[in-house]
Write a structure and sequence with these properties.
With 289 residues, the chain is α/β, with parallel strands linked by helices. It is built from nine helices and eleven strands. A six-stranded mixed beta sheet has the order 8-7-6-9-5-10. A five-stranded mixed beta sheet has the order 2-1-3-11-4, sandwiched between helices. Helix 4 crosses helix 6.
Length: 289
Amino acid sequence: MRAPLHTLLGDHPTTHALRSGSVASPLPLVFADVAVPNKAFKRVVRDLEFDVAELALMTFLMARSRGIPLRLLPVVVFSRNPLPYLICDAERRRITPENLRGCRIGVRSYTTTTAVWIRALLADRCGVELEALEWVTIEDGHVAGVPDPPNVHRAGAGNDLMGMLRDGIVAAAIADPVPAGPRYATVVADPETIFRAWCERHAARTYNHVVVVRESLADDAQAMRELFGAFRDSWRRAGDAIDPTATPLGFEAIRGSLEVAIAVAGAQGLLARPLAVDDLVTDVLASLR
């Protein structure tokens, strides 16, 4: 009988059936009592606390480039257009990509996956010079020992993103959730059009969270097939609640977007060494479809 696998997994449309128990896993999964998985991502990469875990894609790439023993189960938990989360206080000052130069932008951490994708889209589709932006963070990144670049500064104790935005300490902020009401506006006026253009140009999607497994499990062919099958069954149960092009399953289905993600992470100086997409998996994991 297999030992239980300590698992971190949020309740998303793709995972709801598995997380709620309506899809049973052949492997014994013991879910951590964590309502918001990203609150435990440091435990995933610093403490190696979990056998199976939801993890932000950029955090995983950073960890993998530093030899942290995790591998990718080819499952995309969720992905989204990141641009709607970059907002300004329109009552104070309307910020657009054209006048972002020299602005301070508030973000939870410089290396959050949403922030990485936003920078990539701003540079690629809006012509924003990333070196001309200043970032103000309220916490460090998930992977230990990674220094921020010189244009990143930590806010003083007690500051929060929306407070800094309202007070004019930052000109824009990456907010999740985005507050309701007319006071706040997206920096990119038509985020969906810009996002679609980027996706078409790169033949890729901006994945947010994926699933990783402890490296010592990654060559257990039977276990990985069973685990992948449980996620696939949960995905299928979601029906119209998911966009299958945004959350595909299987290594070959996500390979192209992973290659783009690695290139983006490398361009922004997040990787400790160059990565190839095959570095993320084992032969067993690469075979899953």
